[in-house]
Amino acid sequence: MNTVYDYQRRERLGMPEAIFCEGKDAGSLNDILQELLASPDHPTLFTRLGQAQFDTLDSRLTAHLDYDALSATGILHGALPPRPGQVAVVTAGTSDLRVAREAARTLGFMGISHTLIGDVGVAGIWRLLERIEAIRQYDVVIVAAGMDAALPTVLAGLVGKCVIGVPTSVGYGVAAGGQTALNAMLASCGQGVLVTNIDNGFGAACAALRILNTCHPV
To answer: What pTM was estimated for this model as a whole?
Structure first.
């Protein structure tokens, strides 16, 4: 099987192609792993690789993956070299951690220094205010929030750096699997808040990298 992996993407964009695993059958993923294992100079990130799917793969191949079940990510051949810039990954609640962890794992894979700051949502806003001075020191702030998703707007009013909102599929009823959070972020009165798709921590991390590539060319 020819996977047509984009080996030149890192040279073009500063980030290699990631393998989106959800929906792929075990045979296809085993073939991809087999091909990439023969290319140690091409570190690769696997996303949306759930535990049940991971368990169906050839253990002789997955033994080479740094796998994290919470974020459903796997890393092959280690991380990229460290690069300038720092990113804060902030969550409204602990229910948002799986999405935030995907963002954090992607940042780590890309060689970006980052800190995960969890459970500082507006329902307990004093927790955010206790951390706000530290958050202001980062170049980019990624914010994962579900339900009413107010946190990115609040942070955009307190932090002058780029704020990337990640709506999560967390909440009851009218939260509608993250649709309410998405619409709330898109309708934010916070000036310049950027918004990814629902649960797309990977996309938020890649956006942060593009910003850092502009501010800190390598």
So the answer is: 0.93
